[in-house]
Amino acid sequence: MAVTAESDPLSTIMATTLSSIVSNASNSSETTSGDEEDPAWGLVAMITTSCILGVVILTTVIGNVFVIAAIVMEKGLQNVANYLIVSLAVADLMVACLVMPLGAMYEITSSWALGPELCDMWTSADVLCCTASILHLLAIAIDRYWAVTNINYIQSRNSRRVLTMIVLIWVFALAISVGPLFGWKDANFEERVYVDHACLVSQDVGYQVFATMASFYVPLAAILSLYWRIFQAARRRIRHKVGSNGNAKRSRYQRAAQPAPPQSETAPIACSRGSEYELSSCATPTNNGSTAPSSAGGVSSVDVIPRETEHRKKKTKKETLEAKRERKAAKTLAIVTGAFIVCWLPFFVTALMLPLCGEWCSFSDVMMSVFLWLGWFNSTLNPIIYTIFSPDFRQAFKKILCGRAAVNSRRVR
Q1: Intra-chain end-to-end CA distance of the chain, in Å
Q2: d(Cα 377, Cα 372) in Å, to the nearest integer?
Q3: Once rounded to an integer, what is the mean pLDDT over residues 211-223?
Q4: What Cα–Cα distance (Å) separates residue 388 from each residue in 67, 121, 232, 383, 385?
Q5: DSSP notation for 192-225
């Protein structure tokens, strides 16, 4: 493919792409042996594929732009924890802008006609953005684990720590993606581009093992371990709260059932404030040094019973709300982990098997395309999963769509 100095590179790419589409269509029509319906069905399939992929790209762009705009515009969302969400949205937006359009063109034409250099750049951008997106999911899991297991982490979490995590994510993703640009690729790379018109990431066995392990398998194992520990810690915490509430209730009933011993006339009244699970009451020291409810100016046993009933109802409602929060958190973790595995596991399994098996493994082009776009579709789901469960993000999206005045008027009503 020779290009003169006066020609426009963009027009050359468009002309080459159109010629590739025409040649593919003519080749498909020649192989139909006079069947007039196959070219029509091929055109329908091409239009349908273009529409579906266009909707996926547009949805990914809009979703991640909304996440970034919501955090930038809403002061309530401008906290350290959302720095990771912003960086994740940037990575997913880069997938939609740099990777998906060329992938859609490659999918529609079924041929790569842009040369090995642009193929190198496209595959490296693919590895960079997708690896960064996956590593952000790992960083979010680490941040949530620290927040659950360390009581003081939320107070000590500062912008320097989170920004350091973000920088390490992008540096590590860049280190994984630039390997083929510096020659870490298989010997059949240029032949595959020029002869087979196929653009694949380097099929060198060493690079594939390194890239798949560092980009997916190790982060996957860490994410599963962290979310399992988060779930276990949350379940232990809710069980501990329920158990402590039950013990507090039993002790209060025992104290209310015991008769008050005779008080000394000169005994001072000691008032103590109980915990949030106990009633505040005044008590006087007894002969053996313990405390008992005061009858003079204090709370009588008759007054304790309705207060106990009211307090028990409040605690039961609070425990129900806490249980709902725990179930919602567990559901969110299950959706996050499940979506990540469903989207990326098929692609990385085939990506690792393809260079290892060689000719023994045969994967159809349709299956490889479905697995590739399924992985990219995770960038479409991320802004939905990580923000739809947050009322603050939902409110910010409503303000962006309907305007701040419309949202405020609805609140007043």
Answers
A1: 66
A2: 9
A3: 93
A4: 10, 34, 24, 8, 6
A5: HHHTS----S---HHHHHHHHIIIIIHHHHHHHH
List the Cα angle 135/160/62 in 5-degree steps: 50
* H/E element, 37: helix 37-73
What is this structure's pTM?
0.70
Rg (CA), the chain: 31
240-254 pLDDT, tens digit each: 655 555 555 555 545
Classified as helix, coil or strand, 272 is: strand
CA distances from 274 to 67, 135, 259, 281 (A): 44, 46, 21, 8
Cα–Cα distance measured from residue 393 to residue 397, given in angstroms and rounded to the nearest whole number: 6
Instruction: Provide the b/e sequence for 215-233 (b: ≥16 CB within 10 Å).
Output: bbeebbeebeebbeebbee
Residue ranges and CATH numbers for the domains of the chain are: 52-241+330-412 (1.20.1070.10)
DSSP one-letter string for 313-369? HHHHHHHHHHHHHHHHHHHHHHHHHHHHHHHHHHHHHHHHHHHHHGGG----HHHHH
pLDDT reported for residue 88: 92
Query: Alpha-carbon distance 376 to 68, whole Å?
Result: 19
Q: What are phi and psi of 270, to 5 degrees?
A: -105, 115
Which residue has 């709260």 as its token pair? 241
Q: Where do we find the tokens 């010997």?
A: 187
Coil, strand or helix: which one is 298? coil
Encode pLDDT of 325-355 as tens digits: 666 666 777 787 888 899 999 999 988 888 7
pLDDT in tens, 270-298: 333 333 222 233 333 444 444 444 444 44
Mean pLDDT of 35-60: 82
